[in-house]
Amino acid sequence: MRSTKPLGQWLEISRQAFFHNIQEFRKRLGQTELMAVIKANAYGHGLLEIAGLGEEAGLSWFGVNSVEEGLALRQAGFQQKILILGYVPLAQAEAVVKAELRSIVYNQENLKALARAAQRYQKPAFIHLKIETGTNRQGIPANKLRNFCRLLKTLPGVVVEGISSHFANIEDTTDDYYPKFQLTNFLKAVDYLENQGLKIPVKHMSCSAATILFPETHFNLARVGIGLYGLWPSKETLVSCRLRGQEPLKLKPVLSWKARIAQIKSLPRGAYIGYGCTYRTTRPTRLAIIPVGYYDGYDRGLSNSAYVLVKGKRAQVRGRVCMNFIMADITDIPGVKLEDRVTLLGQEGKEKITADQLANLAGTINYEIITRINPSIPRLVV
User: Fold this and answer.
1) What is the 8-class DSSP label of residue 326?
2) Euclidean distance between CA atoms 107 and 24, whole angstroms
3) For the segment 31-60, what is each residue's pLDDT rounded down to a tens digit?
4) The whole model's pTM is what?
5) Which residues form the catalytic set?
6) Which domains does the chain have, with CATH numbers?
7) How many CB atoms lie within 10 A of CB 289?
8) Each residue of 59-114: pLDDT tens digit?
């Protein structure tokens, strides 16, 4: 690990925790292959850093959001099967085929653009059909499958490698009616296409929650995102796991967020702190100024509510979260010095701050807490 001395803030990515989480999911999946979903800068953990760990762990599939993410992996030398889960602009079809990326397809225009690129470069265009099963986001509606099938048979350069869908309401409830409804729709689409003569070797529908709760959705590939980073998709997923009599996975958070104290100042009783004068001291106060703000992804909703850890003890955030700074009360923590380390997310001693805790305070979800961490902050694998 590189030295943190020159850094005002940084993220620590735990190799051990990431490998542990992979093993937890592999035990759940058995013979089903695991795709590491590393879209959105690997959920804020660092695209290349997590891809490197995934390669060390022997993973052969990566899921990304965009062509740019896929190309970044190729340019860094990664040879895994890379599936673009998000939107592929028509003008980027050639880049997809040239780099041997896979793409999710759900409209005929993309299909034709990929076929033209395959013909031009004399390389196969690997696609995964996305079936609309009830999320009403990306996806081919059931009444469009016949036309898709007819078109596919006229495009020899296109290889239908996989078929997929995505659950809408598997994390937010303990009721499994809607997931089962969507699974039924998916299986009907698979049966229809295969009866039309399409051979589809790879089938995938599982997200982290489905991988944990519904073995019948595993097929031969599972897309695991949030769980690989050591976070439960939701409280409901954990509750559902227990209600089903399943042993919950022992997940370990992979990411810690650290910073250094930029200034320490002493304030009298009655002094205001920060924009809007939203906090007024009730006693003589020692204040630590920390060079992290909402530009860095530290949610403004954490103003006057969150705490950070200094020397393993809680220091309450005082005043509004600024663009580039937060202020924390260190009055009750003796011996704090300039450039001492601060933990904004993670464990220090017996205390810890989790993404779920910050999400509850900010009125959001753990996904948003981690994915919004600014990509420019150094990620250090430890």
Assistant:
1) E
2) 36
3) 999 999 999 999 999 999 999 999 999 999
4) 0.96
5) 39, 275
6) 31-243 (3.20.20.10), 255-381 (2.40.37.10)
7) 15
8) 999 999 999 999 999 999 999 999 999 999 999 999 999 999 999 999 999 999 99
